[in-house]
Structure formats: C-alpha cells, structure tokens
C-alpha cells in the first residue's frame, strides 16, 4: 500500500499553500506524488458553456478530456465515495497527499493558523504533526510555515518503510 498523509485544518488556514509546497519539495527530491482534494461543498468540472460541461449536463456518466500532455476523467455518482475507493484507483506514485478528509483514518498533519483556526481539531492518534504560526501545547512535532522542507523530511522519515518497500 502506498503511503498516504492528510493535511487538515479550517478554511483559509493555509492547507493549499502547504500542499503545494510539499508537492514541489517532494517532486524535487524525486518522488512521484498524487494529490487528492476533498471538495466538501461540491465543485464543477468545467466552466458553463464548454463542450465537456455540455456533455455532463446532457447526462454523461463519465466525461474524459484529452490533451497533448494529460487527460482528465470526471465520473459522476449518486452515492458518496469513500476515500479508500479513490485511493484504490491511484497507481504508480510514491506518496499521496490529501487535503481534507479529516474524518477518515490515517496519519494527519493539522494546519493551524491563529487568526483563521477557531480551535484545534481533535484527530486523536492520527495526528502526526502540526504546521502552525504559533507555539502550541503538547509534544506533537510542530513546524512553522517556513519549515516545510523539514516537514517534507519528517513525512519521508515517518513513511520510510513504505517508501523503501515499493517495487522497482
């Protein structure tokens, strides 16, 4: 099973900024990275009026957009998809970084920013580290927003067994 770690926090706490930085750092270190974003309030695939938007509006169950260097498959479903269902479809990467899904089991990094986080999120034993702009009580590893290189090294070390055991 590939290593997975989630970044969780309140809106505007800096989750996306931390995710983007971690992706860049891990890519620079040679890792293949998948990123999963939980859009709790829903999202649209394309701006209204595009061809693929029209296909979705017409009722297509899947819409695939193919370009010179990538493709995107958008699948529509009636039932809520579990995170594990999504993870099972991700192949050929070394690590999956997830933004959100705080209620799912697995290691998590809490993003806490004093002016945007109303309180700490109770993550129990899943809490692996905290990125914060203020000192916080407890003995969980804490990184500032300027220490994301150190955070990436922490993630690599924490998941080292899984990374080392991937087949070549």
Question: Can you describe what's shown?
Answer:
With 168 residues, the chain is of the alpha/beta class. The chain has a single domain, classed as P-loop containing nucleotide triphosphate hydrolases (Rossmann fold), CATH 3.40.50.300. Helix content is 26%, strand content 23%. The chain is built from five helices and eight strands. The chain has helices at residues 15-28, 51-58, 83-87, 148-158, 160-164, and strands spanning 4-9, 33-37, 62-66, 71-75, 95-99, 108-112, 127-132, 142-143. The strands form two sheets. A six-stranded parallel sheet has the order 2-5-1-6-7-8, covered by helices on one side. The chain has a two-stranded antiparallel ribbon with strand order 3-4. A hairpin with a 4-residue loop joins strand 3 (62-66) and strand 4. The longest helix has 14 residues, at 15-28. The protein is globular.
């Amino acid at each position: 099973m590939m290593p997975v770690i989630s970044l969780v926090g309140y809106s505007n706490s800096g989750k996306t900024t931390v995710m983007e930085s971690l992706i860049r750092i891990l890519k620079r270190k040679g890792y293949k990275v998948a990123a999963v974003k939980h859009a709790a309030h829903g999202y649209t695939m394309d701006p209204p009026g595009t061809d693929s938007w029209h296909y979705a509006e017409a009722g297509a169950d899947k819409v695939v957009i193919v370009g010179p260097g990538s493709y995107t498959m958008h699948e529509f479903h009636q039932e809520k998809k579990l995170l594990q269902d999504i993870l099972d479809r991700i192949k050929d990467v070394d690590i999956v970084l997830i933004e959100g899904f705080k209620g799912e089991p697995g290691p998590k990094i809490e993003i806490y920013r004093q002016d945007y986080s109303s309180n700490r999120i109770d993550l129990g034993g899943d809490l692996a580290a905290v990125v914060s702009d203020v000192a916080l009580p407890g003995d969980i590893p804490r990184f500032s927003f300027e220490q994301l290189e150190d955070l990436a090294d922490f993630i690599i070390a924490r998941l080292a067994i899984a990374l080392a055991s991937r087949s070549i």
